[in-house]
Structure formats: structure tokens, C-alpha cells
Amino acid sequence: MTIIVHHLENSRSQRILWMLEELGMPYEVKRYERNKQTMLAPPELKRVHPLGKSPVIEDDGVVVAETGAIIEYLVEKADGRLGPLAHRESVLRYRMFLHYAEGSLMPPLLVLLVLNRIPIFGKSAIKRIQPMIDVHLDYVESELAARPWFAGDEMTAADIMMSFPLEAARGRAGLGASRPHTIAWLDKIHARPAYQAALARGGPYAYA
């Protein structure tokens, strides 16, 4: 049965489309637009899942929410493809980056997004949050300087998970030429045929 992806524009759900393209799994996109004033997801998504957020997938009656959970579901469904590599160190890196993307890297980026929308207070607060983000960006740069992909020598689902926060960081958190390995990694994933196919299926995406 074809997987249904409930896809919100300019959101984490772009990663799910990319993952499905890499795996060659058939899927259908149900696309949702953000509220132009609040930039929040539309209420229609609550009909799919009580949280009313994206991504959510439906697969033969099973509803799965949360990007990391969906990624792990798809790896299992694909018999381990794009999952952890054979070496123990690669497995540990895979697991860490799979959770690091949302658990550690995204929260300060979300804070920065909110602060940028607060005209007066935001500017002084940004001076405090940016150094925290820089610690993460320096860490990511050091990891990508050591190997071509986050888990090792091959692309895995960990790279797919890391794509959105690093795309967001490039757009609004100072990720640039001073971190060449991270920029090269972003350019590399954007050039992949599966990534380009996902963009074509998902519609406009501000971060690629």
C-alpha cells in the first residue's frame, strides 16, 4: 500500500520525502500550507493526528508521527536500508546523530527563530543564544571534517535527520564559509537525485 505523507511546507517533513525517495518507496503527498500570519500548521492536520503537526505518515492504517520515529519506521520497513552501518563506532554515531538533530541542535535554532521576531528584546537575547548555536556548529564541522557522512563512509538516515537543522542554520544562524565541511555536506545532499526528486514532489522549500 502507498504511504501517505502529510507534508507541511517549509518543515521537517521534507526529510521524509527525501527518505522515501532514497528508499524508492511509493508514496502520496498531502500538502498543507502554513497560516500566513502565525506560520503555524493548519487545523486540518489535527484530523490526522491529535498534535496537528507535520510530518505524519499513514501506512496501511498505521499512523506514525515525529520525524525520528518515522525515519526509524521506514528503516525497519526497508529491511535496514539507510540504517546503521556494520561497525560498532558507526552504529553509535548513527544513533547519536539520529537523536542529536532534534534533541540538541534544533532547540536553540527554534529559540533564535522566535527571538528574530521580537523587535527590541530579541536583539539582546540573540547575543546570548548565538554562542550556544556556534558551539553546535563547530562540533558538527569537526565531525564532518573527520568523515564524509555523519555515521561513517556511507550516507545513512542520520544524515537525513541532520539535514533540516543544518539547512535552517545556514538560513538564519550564521552557518557559512567559515565551516567549509558542513557547507560541502549540504551542497552534496542537495545535489543527490533523490533529494531533488523530493523537492519536486513536496513543492517550494525555503532551505535548499
UniProtKB/TrEMBL annotation:
The record's PROSITE patterns line, in alphabetical order, gives: GST_CTER (PS50405), GST_NTER (PS50404)
Residue ranges of the GST N-terminal domain? 1-82
Tell me the first and last residues of the signal peptide: none
Q: Which SUPFAM superfamilies match?
A: GST C-terminal domain-like, Thioredoxin-like
Q: Which residues form the GST C-terminal domain?
A: 87-208
Q: Which domain of life is it from?
A: Bacteria
As recorded in UniProt, coiled-coil segments are: none
Name of this protein: Glutathione S-transferase
